[in-house]
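Figure 6 in text form: structure in, sequence out.
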């Protein structure tokens, strides 16, 4: 619990038996799978709290088949180029596929790293905790990160909501944030198969307040899905699944194969060295 703080009073958390406690005696139980729930009701949205079971299982099944392994390898390489040891937080870790891959890569490279992961979906973070016991996971919102100020050397955010103020707060001055976002042509052929008038993604400007862009790389390639199960797993793990009418879902259900583009922006930022002057 090196970096985690109490979501109620912001005091440091300590492990006591099967719970995490702070000096003010706020107590949070550690689940059987190993994660701790630091998500307060006031931090939750009014609708679905993160990815549901279908989305999490679909993403796990899809990723385990290696369709995004090239992205994962490129992400690990960027982490290795920019990491000098210390603490890494994966903010929006999902079921832990990329978190575990980064952890294993650093271990193979003899890099000293202490890793943490948070996600607002309890289903996802439970799966992540079962995947990799050597990483500390918590259910928490990226908009209310239960971590101490200036506690992280690196922050990872993949396809997750962006909260610049919180990310700046927890990163040390000069700390590194690595971000993955979908680029213009991501899943274009999947969209064509579903929608009458598909639209390409709009990539926002790279400039972020409080950060300096240090490195960028576009990763684009094609994947071939050879069965309906994998096609449905890909579709179900995207936000499109909940924004698509039944008749359009049925179109996709007719496909036995799909060749689609995957297109990503891989970005590394350095936190402003003078950020503490403005906090």
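Output sequence:
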């Amino acid at each position: 619990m090196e970096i985690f703080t109490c979501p109620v009073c912001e005091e440091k958390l300590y492990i006591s038996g099967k719970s995490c406690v702070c000096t003010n005696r706020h107590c949070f139980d550690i689940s059987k799978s190993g994660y701790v729930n630091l998500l307060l009701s006031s931090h939750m949205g009014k609708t679905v709290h993160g990815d549901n079971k279908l989305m999490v299982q679909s993403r796990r099944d899809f990723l385990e088949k290696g369709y995004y392994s090239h992205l994962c390898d490129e992400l690990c390489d960027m982490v290795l180029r920019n990491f000098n040891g210390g603490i890494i937080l994966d903010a929006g870790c999902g079921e832990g596929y990329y978190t575990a891959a980064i952890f294993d890569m650093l271990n193979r490279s003899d890099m000293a790293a202490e890793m943490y992961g948070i996600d607002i979906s309890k289903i996802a973070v439970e799966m992540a905790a079962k995947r990799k016991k050597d990483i500390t996971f918590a259910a928490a919102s990226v908009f209310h990160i239960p971590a101490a100020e200036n506690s992280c050397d690196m922050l990872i955010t993949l396809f997750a909501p962006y909260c610049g103020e919180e990310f700046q707060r927890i990163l040390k001055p000069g700390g590194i944030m690595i971000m993955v976002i979908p680029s213009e042509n991501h899943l274009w052929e999947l969209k064509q198969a579903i929608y009458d008038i598909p639209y390409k993604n709009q990539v926002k400007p790279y400039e972020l307040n409080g950060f300096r862009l240090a490195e960028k790389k576009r990763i684009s390639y094609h994947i071939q899905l050879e069965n309906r199960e994998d096609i449905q797993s890909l579709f179900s793990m995207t936000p499109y699944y909940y924004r698509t009418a039944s008749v359009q879902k049925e179109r996709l259900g007719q496909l036995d194969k799909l060749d689609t583009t995957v297109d990503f922006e891989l970005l590394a930022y350095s936190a402003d060295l003078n950020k503490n002057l403005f906090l």
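Caption detail: The two ends are 24 Å apart (CA to CA).
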